[in-house]
Structures are given as structure tokens and as C-alpha cells.
Specification:
homotrimer; alpha+beta; Jelly Rolls; five-stranded antiparallel beta sheet; three-stranded antiparallel beta sheet; 3 helices; 8 strands; 39% strand
């Protein structure tokens, strides 16, 4: 049995989804994990993780458009707006998606489906450096 | 310590929730896991997982009705509609629930609460074969 | 490698978020886990878990206000209302957040970001005793 903690950083260019499947698979390969789980974790409260369709970019554009409407920037009852109109919506969009995703690993590969990609979902308008922790456990 | 990867398939009859608690418990029992975690994972982007009330079927019917309204099929700005009006909503409903659920195991049993069931949440109108991976880790 | 199952109870005073970061860190410290994961799990279908901004309380007040509107209590099509108007919304608000959160551990500490706290999200109006299971795995 092994336990390994890997880390990497994603430089976002503002709101949107950024695929990190290859970076996570690189952690699995580098760590030599053949069977077990990869737990991906974002150390932030204004971005999140989501597994999503990674073949057709329009699916992600529709996702972005939907979240812009589901949690609008101009809700009159928001109090926590110190960092601008994207501050509070970013926290709620994070709460509606994930801070961690756990992906099974077998024969050294993430067991993602054919169209499944791992994405960092950036909810802030400005570019950010996002820190990702990947915990590998298994054999 | 042991690590085991189990798999099973769920045949859905279209949109709705399908309880898979017994199938996951069968994986735990077959694998002889006494303490640790069972990570349930769906290898798809148009269905998802959710832990939900499993005593009264009307709770799930209300859940379905709510999701039908939260992510309607006829949003005019959706572009990714190649596979029909249920295509894009299925991805978003998946993103708002889970691709993986991690359930603690103790004394050989999933530590689910009294009313907690594990459900596959099918978001497509047509029947599908859904592939589930269960990673057992612990002792 | 070690696997440990810890438990604790949270007494809620009705709807809202209750930070449990210290209780989870206490489990990690008591169990002597230096590297691996802490899986936090709620054994209920009308409360949930969320990682959220823990510095400014107004962020959580806005979260509560948003969820009150996202899943209102008076939706005319709800059938599952035996336990009152907060019954069905509590299940849906749970489904839109998490039953489990997996947090990486390194050097004996939860690898939470600077502003990240672990919160129990109580969705029922009345006070409840909520049972939390923490599975520690690693070394």
C-alpha cells in the first residue's frame, strides 16, 4: 500500500473551465499508482472541480452560461460583495459543484469514461493561481 | 490493507433515480472489506449519483420534478443540443449532483443512515446501460 | 497503513451552517494520521456538508439566503411534505451539496486552504442531532 501527496498549480485566465485530466494522470503515473483512488482537491472557495463532457467545447460554454444565470452577479440581497460583484456568486457556484473529486485508478490509469474530463471551474473574473492537491492511495 | 476494484452495470429505463445500495453492499461483502471506504463512480457525463431518502417514493418524484424545472430542456441559449433537448440538461444536472460518492464502511457494512440510499440519477430520456466502478479500500 | 473510523455528533439549532473543521482536525490528530485522506460523511438526508469561506460570516448568510430562494418551501408541486414545508426542500438542498467531503491530510494536518472551513449545512427548521462519521486512511 502506498500514500502519496502530489501538487500542481493552474493559472486561470478568469471565469471558465480548464481541463486538468492530463495533469492528474501525470500524478498517477509519476507516483506509480496501479490500483486505488486519486483524490483531487482545490484549496480555494471561489473555484471548484467538476467532471464534464470534454469532447465538444459548446457543452462547456452552455455550462458557463447556465451558471451565470443560476447564480447571477446582481442579486440585491447579497451582502458579501467586498471583492466585487463576482465575489459572492463565486462562493455559491463553488458550493453547487465540488471541492474534491475522487477518481478510481486501475492498471495505472484513471478510470474516466470516454467523454469524461476533470475540470477546474474558475468562478472569479480575474486570472488566479489555483493550487491543486492530489492524494494517491492504493498499490 | 486491501484495494479492490469492482464493477457493475445498471440498465436504466430513462429519466429517474435507481437505487443501487444493495449492489454496492454486495461489492463490499464480496470483497470482504470490514473497515474503510467504498468509492462509487459513474463513468458517464449524462447521469450521476446522489444519496437520497429511500423510504418514501414521493420524495424522489419531487426531486425529479424539481430538477426538470431547475434545468429545463428548452433554454434558448443552449447550443449543445445535437442529441436532443435532453442532451445539455443531462450534463448540467450531472454537474449539480455527483460523479462519485464515498461511503464509509465499518464491520463489513456501508455506514448509511436509516433513510439513506445510493441512487443512480439517470438524466437521459432513453434507456441506457450505465457503468459503475466501486473501489474498496481499507482492511 | 492505517484505517480508523471516528464519529462525533453536532447539535444544530435549526437551519444554517455549523463549522466542524476543528472536530475533524481533532479526529486526524487523535488518530495519528500523518498522510492520507479524511472522509467526512453525514448519515442524514436532510442536512449536508459543504466546504465554504470561513472568515466573513456574511458569506454564509448570503449562502443561506440563496438556498432559501433556490429551493423555496412553497413549491406547489411538492408532494412529500408530511413533516412540514421544510421537509422536501431539505432533501433537495442536501442533493445540491454533499453527503461526503474528502480532505487531503499531510504532516498531520488537513490541507484546507486559508479561507476553507468544513461546515455542516442544516436544512431543517427544528434543532437536530446530526451524526458524522470520519474515516481516516493513510499512514
Amino acid at each position: 500500500m502506498k500514500v502519496l501527496t502530489e501538487r500542481f498549480t493552474v493559472s486561470t485566465r478568469g471565469k471558465g473551465t480548464y481541463e486538468i485530466s492530463r495533469e492528474v494522470q501525470d500524478c498517477v503515473s509519476r507516483g506509480g499508482l496501479t490500483q486505488g483512488t486519486a483524490t483531487v482537491f482545490v484549496q480555494h472557495t471561489s473555484c471548484s472541480l467538476v467532471l464534464f463532457e470534454n469532447a465538444d467545447p459548446t457543452a462547456r460554454e452552455d455550462l458557463h452560461a447556465y451558471f451565470d444565470r443560476l447564480v447571477p452577479e446582481d442579486l440585491p440581497y447579497f451582502v458579501h460583495t467586498y471583492e466585487g460583484p463576482d465575489d459572492m456568486p463565486s462562493h455559491i457556484r463553488m458550493a453547487l459543484t465540488r471541492s474534491s473529486e475522487v477518481i478510481p485508478v486501475s492498471r495505472g490509469q484513471l478510470l474516466l469514461g470516454t467523454w469524461q474530463g476533470i475540470f477546474l471551474f474558475e468562478h472569479r473574473t480575474a486570472p488566479h493561481q489555483r493550487h491543486i492537491v492530489v492524494t494517491l492511495m492504493g498499490e
